[in-house]
Write a structure and sequence with these properties.
The protein is mainly alpha-helical and 315 residues long. The protein is built from 15 helices and no strands. The relative contact order is 0.23.
């Protein structure tokens, strides 16, 4: 296996893991608590990684970590779970599958990557394939759920692009950067969760098991693999691994919940998986992120970089 193939395979484990999110949310977690669920997924994982790495941001990276944490976690998680609670899983997955198209546009704006016919075709093909797999006839559309799903995809896409643009500071590993973002995102969610949803619900053993899985396997490990992969792949290549999440969700639904997979769903899987593979073949060489260093004299002179206006995220 080539080095790039190994990077792609490890990065793909993240969206494959996220494909279990819908199943865990509906089968293991208390109902109608999207903000609390996002909080329990992010903050414990972030604090654990901070304790393991013992590294904190310096200089401008306090601001950058906050922005990335808000985009990848703080806004994405609540919006994702709101969409999951208000929409059938298939509809939520289709809405979220537009992420690669958002990345194509944002990469053109902030990374200087001009859209190509291949990137547009593969992104559209991936979304179409996912729709064949998960969208059922007569599926109910909830306006708030659809908006939440689109905003979650936009937030995650912006997070991918700015993670690519900023890289990470010298001497800081991907594990520490993941911890910064999860902690920052969890702290964004914390006050909103208590203001909107009130006190935490009484949790059962099943609920605790679900949250433990989401926090550590589905988040701490998966996001480490995801951010590590973004550094080594182009933004479009990384985001085109996203369709593996709804495909995994469909397979879990078939295996664990007895949901049918007919010929149309199989064709959709082939199309979506084919688009995912095509996105990894001969991509444009990604720009190497600049590694930033900070001295004590520079620390107070750095300005917090805020290039993106805030908006409003299965893996």
């Amino acid at each position: 296996m080539s080095r790039k193939a190994a990077v792609v395979a490890l990065t793909a484990l993240a969206p494959i893991s996220w494909g279990s999110t819908y199943f865990v949310t509906t089968e293991f977690l208390p109902p109608d608590r999207p903000l609390f669920t996002g909080l329990m997924r992010a903050l414990p994982a972030g604090l654990l990684l901070l304790a393991l790495t013992r590294k904190l941001p310096r200089g401008a990276w306090w601001g950058k970590a906050a922005v990335l944490g808000a985009l990848n976690i703080g806004a994405f998680f609540p919006l994702l779970f709101l969409a999951a609670y208000r929409l059938p899983g298939g509809v939520a997955a289709v809405v979220g599958s537009v992420g690669p198209l958002f990345v194509v546009g944002l990469a053109a704006l902030f990374l200087g990557d001009k859209p190509t016919a291949k990137s547009l075709i593969t992104a559209i093909a991936a979304a179409f394939g996912v729709s064949l797999v998960v969208l059922k006839a007569g599926a109910a559309l909830d306006a708030l759920g659809v908006v939440a799903g689109l905003l979650s995809a936009l937030s995650m896409s912006a997070g991918v692009v700015f993670t690519k643009r900023w890289g990470r500071p010298e001497g800081v590993g991907a594990l520490a950067l993941t911890g910064w973002q999860l902690t920052a995102g969890g702290l964004v969610i914390l006050p909103i969760a208590f203001l909107v949803e009130g006190a935490p619900p009484v949790l059962t053993g099943t609920n605790l098991a679900g949250y433990a899985y989401l926090a550590f396997g589905n988040t701490a490990i998966s996001y480490f693999l995801w951010f590590r992969g973004i550094e080594r792949l182009s933004a479009s290549s990384a985001t085109l691994l996203g369709p593996l999440s709804p495909l995994t969700a469909a397979i879990i639904g078939w295996a664990a919940l007895g949901q049918a997979l007919g010929p149309v769903q199989i064709v959709g899987m082939v199309i979506a998986f084919g688009a995912t593979l095509a996105g990894q073949l001969n991509p444009r060489t990604p720009k190497v992120p600049q590694i930033e260093t900070f001295s004590l004299t520079e620390k107070n002179a750095q300005e917090v970089s805020m290039d993106l206006e805030g908006s409003a995220v299965r893996r």
